[in-house]
């Protein structure tokens, strides 16, 4: 169980960092937020992989993806995060 958690965090860090490198512009995100975007991206990538290829149907539609699927999912999550976060305004 501990190995699974460590693997999810490491894959989340790699996927989140690569997503931040691919998406243009400056993202003011901490390392923890980068890991979280990568982890969420892994599940988004697993869901998209299930929808497109119908693989791993025994595991259900919400499952972690491999590294490539995690990176693609993290890019999607980061773009959504930037889009939603850009609507907030700070007033004094």
Can you describe this structure?
The mean pLDDT is 82. Helices cover 68% and strands 0% of the residues. The chain has a domain at 29-86. It is globular. The protein has helices at 2-22, 31-53, 67-85. The chain has 92 residues and is mainly alpha-helical. The protein has 3 helices and no strands. The longest helix has 23 residues, at 31-53. The termini are far apart.
What's the SSE blueprint?
Elements: H1 2-22, H2 31-53, H3 67-85
Report the sheet-strand fraction.
Answer: under 5%
Number of helices: 3
Number of E-state strands: 0
What is the C-alpha radius of gyration, as a whole number of Å? 14 Å
Order of helices and strands: HHH
Give the quaternary arrangement of the chains.
Answer: single chain
Biggest sheet statistics: none
| Overall pLDDT confidence | 82
- Note the gap between the termini: 47 Å
Poorly predicted sequence stretches spanning 5 or more consecutive residues: none
């Amino acid at each position: 169980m501990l190995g699974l958690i460590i693997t999810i965090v490491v894959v989340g860090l790699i996927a989140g960092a690569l997503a931040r490198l691919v998406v243009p512009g400056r993202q003011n995100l901490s390392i923890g937020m980068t890991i979280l975007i990568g982890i969420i991206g892994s599940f988004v990538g697993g869901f998209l992989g299930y929808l497109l290829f119908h693989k791993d149907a025994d595991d259900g539609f919400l499952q972690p993806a491999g590294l490539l699927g995690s990176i693609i999912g993290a890019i999607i999550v980061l773009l959504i995060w930037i889009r939603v976060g850009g609507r907030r305004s700070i007033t004094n």
